[in-house]
Amino acid sequence: GNGEATSAEVFPEAVALVLGLRDEFGLSPQAVPVRLITNGSLLAQAHVREGVRRLGEAGGEVWFKVDGGSVEAIERINGVRLEPAAVARNLARCAELCPTWVQTCMFRWDGALPTDTDIDAWLAVLEAAGTERLRGVLLYGVARPSMQAEAPRISTLTVDELEAIAERARKKGLTVRVSP
Asked: Which domains does the chain have, with CATH numbers?
């Protein structure tokens, strides 16, 4: 849903509760994967790292949102002002604690493809985090109408356009799964 799970004061306890219930019912991590989807902005906080560590130790994984690689792109796409260096630092922290996939949405803005500069900046964040630490990238397009005010400015990329972006990430040594 909408919201940052790691902002809960009881985040580590919530992780422990979910994992405990899975264990109580005898369900394996393969049968019932536990996944955190996060923008990672709170990973500097010890209690958030503790919850992510617990998740990793129990066979869970993180999908860490990185939709842009510049302050401007992150703000335009996600509506928050984050420094790319901080995103990279938190992504690296996360990947050290738990298997981590980068979740990225790419789309046209005002009919224009993401520029080479945009893609280079996004890749630079992943490289700064350490591509060898990451499980890979889940690259996807716009699947449903956006609820944001900017929705009229957003349109889908073709499968070939997404694959071209994926290929650039693969050349950096990343596994990439594309979902148009």
From this structure: 5-179 (3.20.20.70)
